[in-house]
Amino acid sequence: QVRLVQSEAAVKTPGASVKISCTASGYNFRNYAIHWVRQAPGQRPEWMGWFMPAKGNAEFSRKFQGRVAITRDTFASTDHLEVFTLGSDDTAVYYCVRSRFVTFGGAAHWGQGTLVTVSS
Amino acid sequence: QMTQSPSTLSATVGDRVTITCRASQSISNWLSWYQQKPGTAPKVLIYRASTLESGVPSRFSGSGSGTEFTLTISSLQPDDFATYYCLEYKNFSEWTFGQGTKVEMK
Fold this sequence. Notes:
The complex is a heterodimer.
Chain A: E1 3-6, E2 10-12, E3 18-25, E4 34-39, E5 46-52, E6 57-60, E7 68-73, E8 78-83, E9 92-99, E10 107-110, E11 114-118
Chain B: E1 2-5, E2 8-11, E3 17-23, E4 31-36, E5 43-47, E6 51-52, E7 60-65, E8 68-73, E9 83-88, E10 96-97, E11 101-105
């Protein structure tokens, strides 16, 4: 079955960067998009961006444009999310999510989440 | 933009529970519903507005199309106390979640 396993929790100081990994199994990784969603404490989930395998690049929410990067290592079946210049409001659980179909179908499969805490 | 209501709902076991999401423009039936418990990822209950995800109990149902959508729990069970979110996915990306509804014990 589809499985997404994320890297461990991280604690960062303001201004630092964090890189989170998401390793997939149980399906043909190279064909499917992976989205990144974050959820701050007590808040609704928020879509950040996605990697589009057909184009070989990523697209981002306007809110995160220029401050995040998404890369893919097809051989390792792993996507990475990197967030730069962290602030305290970046404290959240970050999820990788696979859509139901190759590029469409909403958030069907979720990783377990990676807690990022930004604190001085 | 997705407007979800109510934000909190107090109910007892056996109650019929209804949660609503309203879209600012038509999204056809590109909407799904999720249940989330503390410390865990959201779990999909319903997709395409009314299709029950495999393994989800039949007491959960979804309806609606266009701009108005409803999640119904026909008879609330102890395991159903949680927070529920709707998600619109009319586009390939730029997903938008509702604000969430916390179902708590009355």
